[in-house]
Design brief:
Elements (H helix, E strand, L loop, with lengths): L2 H4 L23 H6 L2 H12 L11 E6 L4 E2 L5 E3 L9 H14 L3 E6 L5 H4 L8 H17 L4 E8 L4 H10 L6 E5 L19 H6 L5 H10 L13 H11 L15 H20 L3 H4 L2 H14 L5 H12 L6 H10 L16 H6 L2 H11 L15 H10 L1 H12 L12 H6 L17 E4 L14 E11 L2 H8 L12 E4 L4 H4 L5 H8 L8 E4 L11 E6 L16 E7 L4 E8 L7 H10 L14 H12 L11 H9 L2
Parallel strand pairs: 1-4, 1-5, 5-6, 8-9, 9-10, 10-11
Antiparallel strand pairs: 2-3, 7-11, 8-12, 12-13
Length: about 650
């Protein structure tokens, strides 16, 4: 046996078995000893046991929960890596907030429920746990919050695709306490010539097609992350979740998209601690913030930013836990038709500014100034600053912070902030179109979604309508679709095809994110000539004619599960009216129209190869069944105890 595994070094035997314990005495009173739960008294014992000064006990206690991951040395170098950069530095925010609580003579408590990286799990079975993780972690966070019964309020600190929505869901459920969110911010922008963290995920597909060399791929892969912490540089799910959180009033103004690790980022944590104490002192609770008006504001801001379609899953889930009406497809459609897109950011263009520039240009409050002028906001909605939104925007318009940061973007980076966050007139002149469309049709009788603003303009007709008729190439597994896109094997995806990927909804794969597919097509020269239809979801950085969330999903009896190779698919997306259809219209012989397609689908049986992925974890199968019973995808993939109990008992 190797001695270095079994033998104990001499230094390890230098130990003691008793200690005197903390000095001093607990500030107990007759009232406490007679009436306080034993857990409260034992909590004080543990507090001083961990080293807290007993004379400082009795102040308000605040819970800080974060998604921190990894282990950093004092100088920031890694001892153990996190799963992703988005949670790598948030421990610094926890520290800054905790120190501020202590200055205010409050007792901070800190815990963490770390989160996965959707980029790291792309194309792997790890993606089967991504969306289910959100529900599980939100549940654990809620349990941790309730396990600190003496809390006066809760601060959540989170950054990325699943951890931040989970944190928002957990905070929303704190109906009897004040809560505040500190977004973990974004990476710095890379230097000129460096690829962003969205494009760099396509180096494999581009290399196979000879569009980059091995050396170029290696260089690009090394330089994409421009700072060790922060969410990705594009307006994907992480950044959009931060934007929505601020629009809900759940963060201090101008908190979303701050540069990770920078002084202004740490300052937000300190001021958020002060704000949470003030909310507690004033008796402001979470339901005072997360009202239906707040969610209407969030939907308006989402549309103005042109954010990730994954917020269609997360926003209703937050509303469910807040106890307010969940936004429906009709609500999303209304705001996307009413609200102009004003933000030019990766991946939607036209100039593709990184999210750091959106922050410098004024971020959420700057966008809200424009929306206020259009009469699209509910200004009486209360925010965690303790002031209504209208008052916050009055402050922002005249603030030194706004003036100095916008000037910094203009003078140092050479970027006019009004070309990053535009007025409605400028946005129209530059061709910005609204965010999302919800097509119907015989292939999606319950709906689907496309980020219509991200369709390549060169394949959109002059009237603003994307029209495509093409043969289906049907895949049950993402890896087979990727193989075909790379031109490997017998079945190849070629320009003109409609790539159909089914059995990838909640029941098939945990509703995996299929960025491998969409990103490969975006960055291949001929990729814009291919459309994608799937019952899976997309990364927030996905672009192109990519239609997801097709409902019902294949394994729930959806028509998408009846398609065969060479079926003729017709796609019509009106980017101006935000209307669309996806239909089976024919076969290899001819085009017979949508009515023929509806009759044909009704007569067909499902494909014989439909089945859940063989690697689907039992945990995810349970998640899929529970969320399906609770309203499914359009309900936010939540767990609704009432609906689940009713279906279990038949009552």
């Amino acid at each position: 046996m190797p001695s270095d595994l079994l033998d104990t070094p001499e230094s390890a035997y230098q130990l003691v078995s008793t200690a005197p314990g903390p000095k001093g005495a607990l500030p107990l009173t007759d009232e406490l000893l007679r009436h306080a739960p034993s857990g409260h008294l034992f909590g004080w014992t543990q507090n001083v046991g961990m080293g807290w000064n007993p004379t400082l006990l009795g102040g308000k206690e605040f819970t800080i929960l974060s998604t921190h991951g990894g282990l950093r040395a004092d100088d920031g170098t890694p001892i153990a890596l996190g799963f992703h950069s988005g949670h790598w530095e948030v421990g610094l925010l926890v520290k800054a907030a905790a120190e501020e609580f202590a200055k205010l003579r409050c007792l901070p408590f800190a815990g963490a429920v770390t989160d996965p990286c959707d980029g790291r799990t792309q194309g792997t079975t790890g993606m089967f746990d991504s969306l289910p993780y959100r529900n599980d972690s939100a549940q654990v966070m809620r349990r941790l919050m309730r396990s600190h019964p003496t809390r006066a309020g809760v601060m959540g600190i989170a950054t990325c695709d699943k951890g931040l929505p989970a944190m928002m869901m957990a905070l929303a459920a704190q109906h009897h306490h004040p809560t505040i969110l500190v977004p973990g911010g974004v990476m710095l922008a890379g230097e000129a010539g460096h690829e962003d963290t969205g494009k760099v995920q396509t180096i494999g597909a581009r290399y196979v097609h000879g569009e980059i060399t091995l050396e170029q791929a290696a260089e690009a892969g090394c330089h994409a992350c421009a700072s060790p912490g922060g969410g990705c540089q594009f307006l994907g799910t992480a950044a959009t979740s931060q934007v929505v959180a601020e629009a809900l009033g759940l963060t201090l103004p101008h908190a979303a998209l701050a540069p990770s690790g920078q002084p202004i980022w740490l300052d937000t944590a300190r001021r958020s601690a002060r704000a949470l104490v003030e909310m507690s002192n004033r008796g402001i609770r979470t339901p005072d913030i997360l009202t239906e008006a707040a969610f209407r504001n969030a939907l308006a801001v989402f549309a103005a930013f042109g954010g990730s379609t994954n917020l269609l899953l997360h926003t209703p889930a937050v509303a469910f836990h807040a106890g307010v009406r969940r936004p429906t497809i009709d609500d999303w459609t209304y705001f996307n038709r009413k609200v102009p897109r004003l933000v030019d950011a990766l991946p939607n263009g036209p100039m593709n500014h990184p999210t750091m520039r959106v922050f410098l240009a004024g971020g959420v409050p700057e966008v809200m100034l424009h929306l206020r002028d259009l009469g699209l906001l509910e200004l009486d909605a209360l925010t965690v600053s303790g002031e209504p939104l209208g008052t916050v925007l009055d402050w922002w318009a005249k603030s030194e912070r706004r003036t100095r940061l916008r000037e910094l973007l203009r003078t140092r980076d050479g970027v006019d902030p009004d070309t990053v966050i535009m007025s409605p007139e400028q946005a129209r002149q530059r061709g910005l179109t609204s965010t999302i469309t919800f097509p119907l049709g015989n292939l999606a009788p319950d709906g689907c979604v496309i980020k219509s603003t991200a369709i390549d303009p060169s394949v959109v007709d002059a009237d603003g309508v994307y029209r495509k008729v093409g043969p289906a190439k049907v895949f049950i597994r993402e890896k087979d679709a990727i193989k075909a896109i790379k031109g490997e094997g017998d079945r190849k995806v070629v320009p003109g095809d409609v790539l159909v990927l089914c059995c990838r909804g909640p029941l098939g794969s945990g509703m995996e994110e299929t960025y491998q597919v969409t990103s490969a097509l975006k960055h291949l020269k001929w990729g814009k000539q291919v459309a994608v239809i799937t019952d899976a979801r997309f990364s927030g950085v996905s672009t192109g004619a990519c239609i997801g969330h097709v409902s019902p999903e294949a394994l729930a009896g959806g028509p998408i599960g009846k398609l065969r190779d060479d079926d003729l698919i017709q796609i019509v997306i009106d980017r101006n009216r935000l209307e669309g259809t996806i239909d089976l219209v024919g076969n290899e012989i001819g085009n017979y129209g949508p009515l023929w397609g509806s009759a044909e689908l009704a007569a067909r049986s499902a494909r014989p190869d439909l089945e859940p992925d063989q690697a689907l974890p039992a945990d995810t199968r349970l998640w899929a069944a529970l969320q399906h019973a609770s309203g499914g995808v359009w309900g936010g993939c939540v767990y609704d105890p009432e609906l689940i109990a009713a279906k279990l008992t038949g009552k």
